[in-house]
Amino acid sequence: MKSYKSDVVIIGSGAAGLASAIEIKKEDLSVLIIERDKELGGITLQCIHNGFGLKEFQEELTGPEYIQRFINQVLDLKIPYLLDTMVIEITKDKLIYAVNNEEGLIEIQAKAIILAMGCRERTRGAINIPGFRPAGIYTAGQAQRFVNIEGYLPGNSYVILGSGDIGMIMARRLTWEGCEVKAVVEILPYVSGLLRNQVQCLEDYDIPLITSYTVTKIHGKDRVQGVTISKVDRNFDRIIGSEKFIECDTLLLSVGLIPENELTLNAGADLSKNGGPIVDNNLETTIEGVFACGNVLQVHDLVDLVSAEAQRAGKNAIEYINTRYGKDIPSQGKIKCIAGDNVNYIKPDFINREHLSQDVIFTFRVNFPDRRVQIQIKDEENNVIYKRKKVYVIPSEMVELKINFDKLETKIESDSIVIEVIPRPEVLIEEDEVL
Amino acid sequence: MAESSKNVVKVIRCIVCPTGCSIKVIGKDDSDVTFEGYHCKRGLEYAEQEFREPKRILTTTMKVEDGALPLIPVRTNEPLLKAKLNDALKIIAQKQIKAPIKMGDVLIENILDMGINIIASRNLEKNND
Q1: What number is the ipTM of this complex?
Q2: What's the rounded mean pLDDT across residues A155-184?
Q3: Sign (positive/negative) of CA torsion A34, A37, A40, A46?
Q4: Across the interface, do B122 and A45 touch by the CB < 8 Å criterion?
Q5: Does a structural domain hold residue A329?
Q6: What confidence score (pLDDT) does residue B4 get?
Q7: Testing the interface with B: which of A65, A190, A204, A206 to mutate, by most B Cβ within 10 A?
Q8: What is the pLDDT of residue A397?
Q9: How far, in Å, CA of A359 to CA of B84, rounded?
Q10: Which of A63, A96, A107, A139 is the most exposed place for a label (fewest CB within 10 A)?
Q11: Domain total of chain A
């Protein structure tokens, strides 16, 4: 077995992996990227639509253009990478086992590891749709790869389940390729992707958006012949008698993403409620020296935010190697971050007390849309130590807060804090006055 | 002038920000209209553009000869009239381009004589097999 050594090993060469690699190379540490596909770039390569890069480059780019800029930097900096190489195991001691066709099993010893594996799509099995198993059922991202990279059309007439951005973007893409999209069906009472995509991908082409409905049966034995959709109640249970049949030969599922956790779990890192690994404000998992960023940590709305998070992970890995690696530095304790009212999950899961004098970046999503809200952080004694107004919150938009706790009036004494999104107290009063 | 002669010609949902204002286009006919329901200047600009001359960036793929991949993602270098998207797609679908290709290469110049180019969205090497 061949053995390699690298200060940092990055698993995955998507937006997260490339951005963190560039950050580390700037500091002149050795870094190796491992990618299982045959080229660098990850999923952004197949997102050929525009809307990328407004934050990172202040111009609007397509997915491939966005990621090409990072690939070019990786090539210019001569950052080493392995393609067609699948990592099969990582250990607590930062040993990485991987396989590829040329070298067989290889072993790499790292000082730090950055997990940047991204997400997998949820499939039919995850949402339990009854029926046979005919050809013609794909996840939206899989169909996107067929259409945009491999050059195949998965079918002629489509129903798309899920109104997330990938689902809506695929509806337009398939329409442009001459296919018929019969409907986009959404179980929630509102569209789950961005308004921009609802307008430009569905309404531009008169594609019906059917909310509060879901697919309850797939018809056809050899090939999909249609789907039955049913209205759902508040608990997402189907309402008997509301069934409608839609003829189609293909069903696309755009029903959510799950972080690729196998390596993380196998290494012994703990996972949090949102599906990704538990991390502290360094983006460090519960295994020292193993960091996580990008969609493997949390699903982001914008690739720009993935790159920014990955740059942070890169900087933190450098800091780890330069100051903490191989040393036994005692921790000053951790503060647990808890998701409260209308907060689905919060990252980081913990804040290190020694970092209270630095900016801590929180990211979270709400459970339901709301307007004129107050975002607040409370300590264990219910003291509000931080509050901020926001005009609107929607589940499809990740909220980011940057807080330096030492600069706040109330210091955190407790071992946990709660982040919540509540109606603004003064809004309630104002509305009473109007009434 | 009687109020009844003015109608809501169209409702445009603003996509400039997630507030998503519904902007009403009010007037007798398409040439003489006013806009209502926008909450910022950018919203008004968007509605005016969207009402008079809606444009979109077109992103699609083009066939590649001798490429490491069978397709290359492409886009218009500037927004194209929405009404012309289909015509542009048909022209792009008939074209085939030889690898290698560099990001930004002009693959079709002045499509539909509209002064807009179709450019490559990525680099693509030649097939090595």
Answers
A1: 0.89
A2: 96
A3: negative
A4: yes
A5: no
A6: 54
A7: A65
A8: 86
A9: 49
A10: A107
A11: 3
